[in-house]
Design goal:
alpha/beta; Aldehyde Dehydrogenase, Chain A, domain 1; Aldehyde Dehydrogenase, Chain A, domain 2; 2 domains; 15 helices; 20 strands; binds nicotinamide-adenine-dinucleotide
Length: 465
């Protein structure tokens, strides 16, 4: 772990497994409560000076982080692939590191200038953005480094200090990345502790933390929100999704197959903002099914480190069992398996790409977040029914609509209840575009000016003229 700029060991360690092979990748330290307190104290001490550092110097520090990430991208990508399972190539570990570098560089260049709200004969009113204090960051196991960067960099850029706790399934790459990033930062600005879920709970209750940024499941997000209430922490919650995609009858199945495929299968489906339910008009239902199955034939799944793999395994046993359970439940309800549908023999948590046809709302695979390489394809005849189905859940992360008539796609987009609605694509995120869920998919946004502002509080200076 890294606390106050120095490496810190532990008395207890937990094994981290490679989901492609079941082999031990390394041992993760298990922080004690006292070590968490030390990390928060180090961040609080560093905040006293970091908050006063001028904007240009903080921007330079973020640019120095870009240098560190670029220099060590290969090493970090390999460690990430080994503990997370994702392939090095494709939309995998190297892509994730490039995302880390791109987001850090973009954030380095962002600013939140003072806004003059009034400058009159009576008064001058200015709106300033100030850092909130120590930020606690809690991350999941699907995009461990990218999400860590999304939490860490805007916090540091705006003058906060950070204690991050990675997922117990994928802590090693974050521990290493934070150690490396510390070479570009004053001691205590960025600290990392690792441990189990209970450590996350302690972090989200900690009285000396001003804000929690949490990315993970809806049930855990609710717990974080409840435990942050005592100390009135501000929150950014990026939670689960069950993104619907609606395919209109004038869409061209062969042309959209690739976009739909990666929209759903990115990171083997273990992506919050992946397509998780596909609503296809009856006129082109069979052609869409066929096009997806045909596209899949050219996509190799395998060990993350193996040359040529484009899809990896499920990340952990719990997720693997959940995916098996959801597919078995769909079969029991009469759904038709177009490809895949049976877990591969070990080693590793490999589950083949599985497209499931003739399935309805009300089955678990449609209603729940499967978070795996399995996509239910639901037939509709009246687009109003598809829109009602798309909106009829607690989720509201992204949605997409696919078709050739721009007026019609825009009209459907305006009816969909989601933080982002894509047209003729899915899962296209960028550092200048705010991203976040509505309903139970989250509170607040990341990225863009609004995402940066979320790490600040407003101070008004109201002066008599
Ligand atoms: P999870 O909620 O199980 O765990 C996330 C993190 O929370 C881990 O670090 C875990 O140790 C910690 N944690 C567990 N219990 C806690 C508690 N009581 N208090 C505080 N922290 C606690 O989620 P996961 O299984 O790691 O990740 C998958 C989920 O994350 C999916 O639902 C996915 O949709 C969601 N996700 C959302 C986004 C987004 O941006 N909206 C991005 C990625 C993943």
């Amino acid at each position: 772990m890294t606390i106050a700029g120095a490496p810190v060991g532990a008395e207890q360690f937990a094994e981290v497994l490679n989901p492609s092979t079941g082999e031990v990748v390394g041992l993760a330290p298990q922080a004690t409560d006292a070590q968490l307190d030390q990390a928060v104290a180090a961040a609080a001490e560093a905040f006293a000076s970091w908050r006063l550092v001028d904007d240009a110097t903080r921007s330079q520090a973020c640019n120095a982080m870009v240098g560190v990430l670029s220099e060590h991208a290969g090493e970090l990508a390999e460690l990430l692939s080994r503990e997370q399972g994702k392939p090095m190539q494709g939309i995998g570990a190297e892509f994730e590191l490039q995302g880390c570098i791109g987001w850090t560089g973009y954030t380095a260049a962002q600013t939140l200038p003072v806004k003059v709200l009034e400058d009159s004969d009576e008064r001058r009113v200015e709106l300033h953005r100030e850092p909130v204090g120590v930020v606690g960051s809690i991350t999941p196991w699907n995009w461990p480094l990218m999400i860590a960067i999304w939490h860490i960099v805007p916090a540091i850029r705006t003058g906060n200090t950070v204690v991050i706790k990675p997922s117990p399934f994928t802590p090693l790459s974050t521990l290493r990345m934070v150690a490396l990033l510390n070479t570009a930062l004053p001691p205590g600005v960025l600290n990392v502790v690792s441990g189990g879920d209970a450590l996350g709970a302690r972090l989200s209750q900690h009285p000396d933390i001003a804000k929690i940024v949490f990315t993970g499941s809806i049930p855990t997000g609710k717990k974080v929100m409840a435990s942050a209430a005592d100390t009135l922490k501000t929150l950014t919650l990026e939670l689960g999704g069950n993104d619907p995609a609606i395919i209109l009858p004038d869409a061209d199945p062969e042309q959209i197959a690739e976009g739909l495929y990666w929209g759903a299968l990115i990171n083997s489906g273990q992506t919050c903002g992946a397509i998780k339910r596909l609503y296809v008009h009856d006129d082109i239902y069979d052609r869409v099914c066929d096009a997806l199955v045909a596209f899949n034939e050219h996509i190799p799944m395998g060990d993350g480190l193996a040359e040529g793999s484009l899809l990896g395994p499920l990340q952990n046993e719990r997720q693997y069992q959940k995916v098996i359970e959801l597919v078995e439940d769909a079969k029991a309800h009469g759904a038709r398996i177009l490809c895949g549908g049976e877990a591969a023999d070990g080693p590793g948590y490999f589950y083949p790409v599985t497209f499931v046809a003739d399935i309805e709302d009300g089955t678990r695979l449609v209603d729940e977040e499967q978070f795996g390489p399995v996509l239910p394809i639901i037939r509709y005849t009246d687009v109003n029914d598809a829109v009602a189905s798309a909106n009829g859940t607690e989720f509201g992360l992204d949605a997409s609509v696919w078709g050739q008539d721009a007026e019609q796609t825009a009209a459907i987009a305006s009816q969909l209840e989601a933080g982002t609605v894509f047209i003729n694509k899915h899962a296209d995120i960028a550092p200048h575009v705010p991203f976040g869920g509505i309903k139970c998919s989250g509170i607040g946004v990341e990225f863009g000016e609004e995402g940066l502002e979320a790490y600040t509080r407003i101070k008004i200076i109201n002066a008599a003229a």
